Amino acid sequence: MNEHTSQPGPRFRFAPSPTGFFHVGGARTALMNWALARRLGGTFVLRIEDTDEARNRPEWTEGIIDALAWIGISDSDEHFEGPHFQSANADAHVAAATRLYESGAAYYCDLSGQEVQDRAKELGITGYDGYSRDRGLEPAPGRVLRFRVPEGSTVVNDLVRGEVSFDNATIEDFVLLRGNGAPMFLLANVVDDIEMSISHVVRAEEHLPNTPKQQMLWNALGHAPPAWAHVPVLVNEQRKKLSKRRDKVALEQYRDEGFLADAMVNYLMTLGWTPPGAEEAGTEIATWAAMEADFALEDVNLSPAFFDVKKLTAFNKQYIKNMDPAEYLAAASAELPEDWDRDRFAAIAPHIQERLETLKDVPGTVDFLFWPQGDGAEPIEYDEAAWEKATKPEWSAALLADVIGAYGSVAPWDHETLKATMEDVMARYEIKLGKAQALPRVAVTGRAVGPPLFEALEVLGRDETLRRLTAAADRSTG
RNA sequence: GCCCCCAUCGUCUAGUGGCCUAGGACACCACCCUUUCAAGGUGGCGGCACGGGUUCGAAUCCCGUUGGGGGUGCCA
Description:
The chain is α/β, with parallel strands linked by helices and 478 residues long. It has helices at residues 24-39, 58-70, 90-102, 113-123, 185-195, 211-220, 251-256, 261-269, 278-281, 288-294, 309-321, 325-333, 342-352, 362-366, 384-391, 396-407, 415-427, 433-436, 438-445, 453-460, 462-477; strands at residues 11-14, 43-48, 80-85, 106-109, 144-147, 153-158, 162-167, 175-177, 200-204, 227-231, 234-235, 305-306.
């Protein structure tokens, strides 16, 4: 991994806190930062915000790197820098706080959280009232360091939202250092950004209310603030911010459920943004190269976007359909149980490629080819509804018997001949192929739907096909 | 409560004062094709939250209302 890169361009950053899983919303902001860093010849800095010691483990960081790699953000890319760890920079955070205190930009307060609340209630206000502003308290255990919010207003210049103005009177003197001396997120975040020469902070909108505070910190620490950009949050059907508790938000989970990284990346990028040319192309499917070349913060939509698994699934289906045959075969084969014959699967694989929504659908679509075969095998479990429907026509039993007869000697055993033979048989009943194939299909696969029948029979082989057909004939008459 | 953000089909969006009778994608429906299911083709359903302005002209600009969201921690 690159501890340091020397890209001349702007410096972006992605600063997740290790929580054990990778949020799809995080993936989206990471992708946007990545697209910009690469196109602008800049750097994507990964910083792990691990200051919350109570909950975070080393393997979480590994998980983040893996997740990023999965969506194409590789730590061996020349535009990638890190990971840096916030915890490693604790001294700098405290040093910055000390400077703020010494310059008078911050002051100590001995009120406990409870006391602050009680005062607020008494005064009929919310938050902290600046009680210790001019009490000249010295640092001491149990005392928190608070930022002295100046008079006036703070204007945040946001690349996606324009100017956003905050009246400083509505911002309380927030805590920089806890009573135990540990730095707070707001401070650590800013100090790290300054140290890492971050020029662009692109993150989710939930951080917008923090921004005036951070901007004041940048200024108080003697630096011009970075370019800010707050992209809308991702929401669920109830239009609430995606949350770990209620919603499926772990990127890893989608990966494990058979979603392709490219599909996920493409879909995530279309949330709040449309690849230029999508309309003319008649599709929002676009390559990463194209999106990287076209993505612009100024074009990002301002409203929260619903993370729609249905649309993600549609994208995934398209991506599977468009996969290179060899690549597809490898990926699909990986979903099979160990003991399933790979050559046999390879024969049917092309026929199910455009029928899959996710790679996880593979086994369930072709399982009938791998069921126990021969005389001693367990009887097939039929889908009863499918069986009922297929055996309902009065000609069904006769047709099945005829098919068994014809298939007993047909040659060669390939899908074209099998189809032609079926057509000969069905002509006697004046029905169409769609109807004629129904019972044989249920007889062989147990279900009403599946891969193209004759191709499947070709793979199954004459003996087993006949055996299943005969078993079905016995069942329907007996 | 207070602060901030937002508001185009069910969903994601295009649209930056006339090219808008508002376009595309996903979903849904119908038909065609068809070896079931898919895929593909054709068509359909469906939207500028509301009210005031500004303007010759408003989805686009302004104000208000309503609605939604985010934040409001000695969490990040």
